Amino acid sequence: MAVSSIFNDAIGPVMRGPSSSHSAAGCRIGLLLRDLIAADIETVVIDYDPNGSLVTTHESQGTDMGLYGGLLGWQADDARMESYKAGIQAAGIAIQVNYLSYGATHPNMYRITIANAQISHTLTAVSTGGGMIEVQKIDGAAVSMYGDYHELLIYGRHLPAIQANLPDTLTYDFLEHHAGDRQFIELKSATPFSPEEMTAVEALAEVDFVRYLRPVLPILSRKDLEVPFIYCRDMVAYGRRHSLNLWELALRYESVRGGISENEVCQKMSHIVRLMDSSIQQGLQGTYYEDRILPCQSVGFKERMASQTLINGEPLNTIILYVTAMMEIKSSMRVIVAAPTAGSCGALPGAILGAAAVMGKSEEDVVHAMLAAGMIGVFIAEHATFSAEVGGCQAECGAGSAMAAAGLVVLAGGTLEQSVAAASLALQNSLGMICDPIGKRVEAPCLGRNVMAASNALSCANMALANYDPLIAFDEVVTTMLDVGNSISHELRCTGLGGLAITPSAIAIEKRLQSIGGC
Fold it and tell me: pLDDT digits over 120-140, tens only?
């Protein structure tokens, strides 16, 4: 399993669409499929298992949009994503979707066959939450690809002979032989393969053809990768030894994890913070998108704040305003940052940027708070999940609340121990939260739960700053969240088959959306 990264797992990807588990993950799978067949796509057959979640959600939550966009070579934040159907039609790609049981072992499992007149390939992959993926099979052979390496697949007739004759100039981190419907050698590299290297490999007598699958994650992995800590308890001990705050620990961790300088880490987070702020400011101007459930509500809230007709409560009201604006931007198909997911993209930036606006904090202060939040997210990604299909909404909004709580403590100048206490309290308060999207959209009750997550984060940050005792160590709360998620029924984990999603009002909303051309 890949070691978790702040920018891979916790804060990101930059994307459009309702759901990172569907839209962004689908896009990444599509991009890998495109490389697998060297961009020469004629037909695509997609199999979804009814025992998973994709049968009921692949259209409404943006899987089709992301996957088809990836097949066309578009990135997750591409402005053309809305026109994915027209793009597929213009490209002459025929797509067939089947619902059939094939023993899927994950609720977000894709089995896809991609073909042209000369060749076909089959790929099986899962979306693991927050836009992260794992390719588990290619052409019937078991693999493990997360999109964090340059992958060279060398198909041929005699793999040992191919390996023996590989050019001496060819560098790679790992080499594996695979035998399924076809046999191939897989080379993983932290650095790109050059055209000259590929030409030399293709010229070998035993080689039939070569495929180059490019990374789809922003932070790559490498051989012998080690990080200073991977459990929160170890991080706290490390921080005490070196007298480091949570954001400083995050900076050190991500620098080591990504093999990049601490300055580059700060620059990446500054870019993300600016994107988040830009999205919120756009949302405050008002949004409209026909195929959504909720109207624009942030503008009305802002007017009520200005006229002082709301119950006074700062920075809470500004946080509510910012969360709402971000969620409305997401529902309008504009650019967001999944933090940690698209479904929970409002809570963390709404809480941090909202509080920072009221407190008069600088961009640098916000960057430090976001780094701290990202570090808490790494522990959740590493030891639990961000996927509502696996853990319910506690894994999305609950995780976002814990991340935001830690970030708010850093924003207020709190200690390492107080930051971790806030995260523990916030996640404890979120245990058992189900995922029951109305109209099979990631819109409601998602908005309210993002507001609740941000409000919870603010409360827990203040409790921690006042030295309230969380009692349960954060690592234990993360493990508990995963255990609780496993006990939540299938119908209450983002399938649209239980909870508020099956009330008469929700069914009426779904019919209305279908009548205007929705899914």
Answer: 999 999 999 999 999 999 999
